[in-house]
Amino acid sequence: MANIDEIRAGIGAANQRATESLGALRHVRNAIEEAGAALSQQTYGTAQQDAEQARALFAAAAAKVDEVEQAVHVAMNAADDITARL
């Protein structure tokens, strides 16, 4: 069985990986937002309703990434709580 210091180090490593994932998620969200903006720019003035729907879907996808970021933060806080109790 691991000792307290090893457990703390393992939790720290897990949170470090989670922090790295947050950077990747920000990159993903930015790329999705750029895709939506590019679509809007290219379809501006068209009468095609599905173009607006596609833009809305990009916005919804970006919002889902925001939800994932929040979930990662909650998980990291929970891990920090475990460390604080050790």
Percentage of residues in strands: under 5%
Uncertain stretches of 5 or more adjacent residues: none
Largest sheet, described in full? none
Termini separation comes to 15 Å
List the secondary-structure elements in sequence, H or E. Answer: HH
- Approximate helicity band: over 70%
Q: What structural class is derived from the secondary structure elements?
A: mainly alpha
Integer-rounded radius of gyration: 19 Å
Please tell me what the overall shape is: rod-shaped
Count of DSSP H/I helices: 2
* Integer average pLDDT: 94
In terms of quaternary structure, the protein is single chain
How would you characterize the overall build of this protein?
With 86 residues, the protein is mainly alpha-helical. It has helices at residues 4-43, 49-85.
